[in-house]
């Protein structure tokens, strides 16, 4: 997933302190309802359009930045923790939408998640390589009728949401 990086550059440096995992959902809870709706709309659009990569608008980046700043101040997060929590928020908001989309295409989302969780931890807690994503997709698409570009793109997005939630949580706990 790509995001407007400039919004995260505006986060003020916070004093160094280990980020408490119990506060990881702060950005998602502080996100303005309009921005949350826009995140959902942009995710759904990318999930439903073949060839459309998921990117978020500058307004989403600004909304995430505002929520992350508020959380960073409240919980004394570092800039790295605020950035990780922002990525985590995007993944957690988008994951149910992606789950619904893959299930509507006839895939078992729980089995896909199990497949992702079966990867070595070292792979799950970092951004997946193209090769790792392709291997996950190939293992997931066993029926010839499901071997389409659209399904491959959809599964890539689903695995990206799963992966982002996992590596963002890892990055947050290490910040």
Structure commentary:
The chain is mainly α. The chain contains 9 helices and no strands. It has helices at 6-9, 26-30, 33-48, 58-75, 79-104, 109-117, 121-124, 130-140, 149-174. α3 crosses α4 (58-75), α4 (58-75) crosses α5 (79-104) and α5 (79-104) packs antiparallel against α9 (149-174). The protein is globular and about 50 Å long.
The computed structural class is mainly alpha
Largest sheet: none
What is the number of strand segments?
A: 0
The fraction of residues in strands falls at under 5%
What are the secondary-structure elements, in order, as H or E?
A: HHHHHHHHH
Nearest-integer average pLDDT = 90
> What would you call the shape?
globular
**Low-confidence spans: pLDDT under 50, at least 5 residues?**
1-17
Distance between the termini: 21 Å
> What Rg do the Cα atoms give?
16 Å
| Helix coverage percent | 55-70%
Q: Count every helix, treating DSSP H or I runs of 4 or more residues as helices.
A: 9
């Amino acid at each position: 997933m790509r995001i407007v990086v400039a919004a995260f550059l505006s986060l003020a440096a916070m004093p160094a302190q280990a980020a408490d995992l119990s506060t990881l959902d702060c950005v998602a809870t502080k996100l303005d309802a309009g921005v949350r709706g826009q995140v959902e709309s942009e995710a759904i659009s990318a999930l439903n359009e073949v060839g459309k990569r998921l990117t978020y608008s500058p307004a989403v980046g600004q909304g995430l930045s505002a929520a992350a700043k508020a959380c960073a101040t409240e919980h004394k997060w570092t800039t790295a923790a605020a950035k990780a929590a922002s990525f985590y928020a995007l993944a957690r908001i988008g994951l149910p939408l992606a789950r619904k989309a893959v299930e509507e295409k006839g895939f078992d989302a729980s089995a896909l998640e199990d497949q992702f969780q079966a990867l070595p931890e070292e792979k799950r807690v970092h951004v997946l390589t193209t090769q790792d994503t392709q291997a996950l997709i190939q293992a997931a698409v066993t029926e010839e009728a499901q071997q389409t570009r659209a399904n491959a793109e959809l599964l890539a997005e689903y695995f990206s949401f799963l992966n982002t939630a996992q590596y963002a949580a890892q990055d947050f706990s290490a910040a």
